[in-house]
Design goal:
single chain; 302 residues; alpha/beta; Molybdenum Cofactor Biosythetic Enzyme, Chain A; Beta-clip; 2 domains; six-stranded mixed beta sheet; five-stranded mixed barrel; 6 helices; 16 strands; globular; molybdenum; EC 2.10.1.1
Length: 302
């Protein structure tokens, strides 16, 4: 009988309401039965609730995998540190800071955040050092078709990288390979900030999950982790022909609205977005009422 149903007496007590037989009785095995797997080793994060469950089950120690350690490398002679006023032909290195925060939001650890100049010696040395200190290296910039796309030049000339154009917008130029004495995997992202963020969600995030022991279904790309939910378009907008478009949107009560301009350099719209709406390659215009898969952006505060 709960105290709330009595007058609160200690030596003598008045019960104010009837108690059905068996009510408020916690029976043995009512929560977890003997022989049941309490915690499965399938790459799930050991959350506070799961720690409590293990402790209550009498488990004092569990085998866990370490958080993946990630090196973030930005490239380009035009980059200046955050806080420095850029001169002519320069831009602030916002990418490495953004990617480092995304790594942390994904549950991984930033091993190092550094930069390299647009020359092969600098890029080679930086990638080699990054590969020896991390489980995964991600770079930004230097992977397109320009004369100074040094990351692509370095990895291609050594035979350690593979580059291709992915039929998606933003984020068409992509690459991967191995660096350092341990052959650490590297994922090379585009230099435009929106392209880098989108590419992180559809390429780097699944890689981090796999490094952490989680199951990844590549056939479900661009949502191999099954994180997406469906929502309904609340407005119309054009989409790139023959490319999967990942539109920056806000989702409110399962209604989709674009967060602003969709250029790959537009951080203002990116700052207001909560999801990426996946527009299939065969769709050239989204109409009001269309149902789209929406991928949640890491670290987003509604």
């Amino acid at each position: 009988m709960p105290v709330e149903a009595t007058d609160g007496g200690v030596e003598r007590v008045s019960i104010r309401e009837p108690a059905p037989v068996g009510q408020h009785v916690r029976r043995r095995a009512g929560d977890v039965q003997r022989g049941r797997t309490v915690l499965a080793g399938d790459g799930r994060v050991l959350s506070p609730g799961r720690v409590a469950l293990a402790a209550a089950s009498g488990v004092c120690e569990v085998v866990v995998g370490a958080r993946p350690r990630v090196a973030v490398v930005s490239t380009g002679d035009e980059l200046v540190p955050v806080g420095q006023v850029p001169g002519e032909g320069q831009i602030v290195d916002s990418n490495s800071l953004m990617l480092a925060l995304l790594v942390t939001a994904a549950g991984a650890e930033v091993a190092v955040r550094t930069s390299a100049r647009d020359d092969e010696a600098s890029v080679s040395a930086t990638l080699a050092e990054a590969g020896d200190t991390a489980d995964l290296v991600i770079t930004t910039g230097g992977v397109s078709m320009g004369a100074y796309d040094t990351v692509k030049q370095v990895l291609s000339s050594s035979g350690a990288g593979r580059f291709s154009k992915v039929a998606m917008r933003p984020g068409m130029p992509q690459g991967s390979g191995r660096v350092g004495s341990r052959g650490t995997p590297v994922i090379t992202l585009p230099g435009n900030p929106v392209s880098a963020l989108v590419s992180f969600h559809v390429f780097v995030l699944p890689a981090l999950a796999a490094l952490g022991g989680a199951s990844v279904d590549a056939s479900r790309w661009p949502d191999p982790l099954g994180r997406g939910t469906e929502a309904v378009a609340g407005e119309e907008w054009p989409s790139a022909a023959h490319k999967v478009e990942l539109t920056r949107v806000r989702v409110d009560e399962r209604r989709i609205c674009r967060s602003g301009g969709q250029g790959s350099h537009m951080l203002g719209a990116l700052a207001e977005a909560t999801h990426l709406a996946v527009v299939p390659a065969e769709v050239e215009r989204v109409h009001v009422g269309d149902v789209l898969l929406c991928l949640p952006l890491l670290g987003t505060v509604p």
